[in-house]
Amino acid sequence: MESGFAHQNSMEGRTVACKIAARRRDKRRCFSNVFIASLWVLSLLSLPRATWSAGEKFIFGWSAIAGAQAIPWVAKEAGLFEKHGLEATLIYLDGGSKATQALMSGDIPIAQIGGAAPIAARLRGGDVAIIAGIVNVLAYSLIVSPEIKRPEDLRGKKLAVSRFGSNSDYATRKILVKWGLRPDRDVAIMQIPGGQPTRLAALQNGQVAGLVAQPPVINLARKFRLPILAEPEDFGSAYPNTPIAAGGLFLREKRDTARKFIKALAEGIYVYKTKSDFSKKVIAKYMRVADPEAIDDSYQFFARLVPAKPYPPLDGIREALLEAAERDPKARTARPEEFADMNLVREIDESGFIDALYKGKK
Fold first, then answer.
1. Structural domain of residue 166, as residue ranges?
2. 3-state secondary structure at position 86
3. Which of 210, 235, 260 is where one domain is finished?
4. At residue 35, does pLDDT exceed 70?
5. Could you say which of 174, 200, 235 is where a domain stops?
6. In what order do the strands lie in the sheet with 188-191?
7. 3-state secondary structure at position 192
8. How many domains does the chain have?
9. For residue 137, what pLDDT is reported?
10. Rounded CA gap, 189 and 136, in Å?
């Protein structure tokens, strides 16, 4: 039977998902979002966690079924939001573009979003800011079908992304341009929502010729003997791969709530880095992957990339602005600092809170 807490989470998740879909006047999408939100909440059985008194209600959105998204999952399952005074509901919003729309509409206050989406929104005048950086490099590999031997073989083929404007979309276009191939002309870009496992299935059934992915999907692709045409170092270096963004109104009116969130996030990073067995159980549950080797691969890949102090990645934002400048003249004169609120992480860092977590762990 569904617990009272899970029922409450599912109801709030359904409400947010339907609001987003209703704004787009798409009843079928609303039904799909309801199903996804309900399915994810009901499927996440509880892991052992500390018990804390209920606090301020808070909804957080995450945007990809990928190992890079694990920190808020770990914070939730370890009871850290509750510890810091937040009764948190986590909902899944498929893709950075959709998560940014939810932020802009005010349906959710904070979301973990794929790189360029919050930057593009702010360039268009959106009241949104990046408040933390979880993975600050473009950490992808390009998986392709067996007949693809060289980049030139992609000409006339289709590559899958989650949604246009998402992190996977940016990474796909970036590697194609690097190889001298024109996205949407030489190589078609196809939206396939539903997470990286869904896009891997589309590759296996011949619907597309490839996709960019992260562990543990990369590990699964190797098991299926699918070629890896590009590794993370081929894509470039600094990039806001997994930033956390918040609505400007929320940051101005609910500053203390935002501080509580950042403290829970920083402690979640600590648990993620120092309690690997617990973290791997959380990753397996949220990603629905039972293969221990794939889960370990995901954990080992991202644990070294996540910084203990999750400052917004100014170098990565600069890289995203350079890419955006090809389409938007405003990006040419924009400064990275205009897209980030550095003060939340700085406040808890300068208070000694983060250093105290790791004391004796060096």
1. 141-235
2. strand
3. 235
4. no
5. 235
6. 188-191, 158-161, 210-213, 141-144, 228-230
7. coil
8. 2
9. 87
10. 24
